[in-house]
Amino acid sequence: MPKVYIRTYGCQMNERDSEQVARQFQERGYDLTESEAEADVILLNTCSVRDQAEQKAIGNMGRLQQLKREKPGLVLGFMGCMAQSRGQDLLDRLPDVDLVVGTQRFHRVVDHVEGMRGVNGARKKIFDTVEEKGSQGTIRDHVLNPNQVTAFVSIMQGCNMHCTFCIVPSTRGEERGRTILEIVAEVRGLAERGVREVTLLGQIVNFYGRHEFPVVNGMTPFVQLLEAVNEVEGIERIRFTSPHPSGFREDLIEAVARLPKVCEHVHLPVQSGSDRVLKAMHRPYTVEKFKRIVESLRSREPSIAVTTDIIVGFPGETEAEFQETLELAREVQFDQAYIFRYSPRKDTPAATMDGQLSEGEKELRNQELLAVIDDSMKRKLAADVGTEKEILVEGVSKRNDARMMGRTRQNRIVVFPGGERHQGQLMRVRIEEAIGFTLLGAPDILD
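-> structure tokens emitted (447 positions)
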């Protein structure tokens, strides 16, 4: 059988897109492989959020061109956001690449590859980045590993917010949502295959369906979806990522506290602690509004974990404005934060703004903020020591084959001595120690 190798860069949505493509290859008789040398088809699913991710993908493809010279029948291709944004430039820059497929055409990849592999001699290169109506409904099939108990579910595509630092609206298109019935059917199918936790994915997940479906009994379409998924038998946990503060309404705050399967964890990107910087980013909320959302979540559900994204070194960010971000981090005490040094993206307003900071200055700010975040993370984990937590056991620990790994409802990793008999179980463990950013669970209450 022919073999396909898929390498994914970037977010969970990219992972989900790659899984869909992999499933379609399997249906055509291909085997998935983790070896580039064994592959007949190599596809890189790319990310454009930061320049580093783009350069890494381009560098890897440059290296793979040598493999193709040794194996002329090999098909090389780019998929995803960088394919969408750079398009023909990738074919011009990397002459051995055969295929460039954008974000609304993942479901066409296998057809394109099959057409190429049937051609003897010179192949016609394929460049396919057109928009396609209904493409949001094409990411619906899954490749599940044996005993897999968690899965991502794509509920929408695109974004209408146009943050000045972000290329996503031009790579993913406008917001488009699937129907609740379609999503619930997918979740039900996953439950029947043993999945116990789903993560609902959207570029701005809480904006799901806002232009397509009505508000019902004061509930936004996203809250209606959460209620529907909460009723699926066999699903024990629901997560979602990533929401936007501007659309985090009272009905969603209430749903997080009310619905028993929705986990006590919200990832809410703040991006900056400065109102002026937020305005320059085209983030239509204030720091005070963000803090009110967090306060409301914590008042309704005291055990909730709040994580975030923060950009340091946005064009024009002064030292005083960066200090405001540090102060916000100290005040909110995030459970975790992903910190990004600002990276100019082509055709975005921020790329040409005055006041571009040096990489050195951005790195200094990154390290200073990281120290504040790490301090709050360690204190949160230390507070769990001596308590009992529910975990869903996902599998063997990556670092120790004699231990199993699970996550709390707050999305904290717990490692404990165990075995295959614990795979997929929901269980309560006593937390005995916090090492780094991992919790260690007691073995004596697990059987």
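Residues 359-384 form the longest helix (26 residues).
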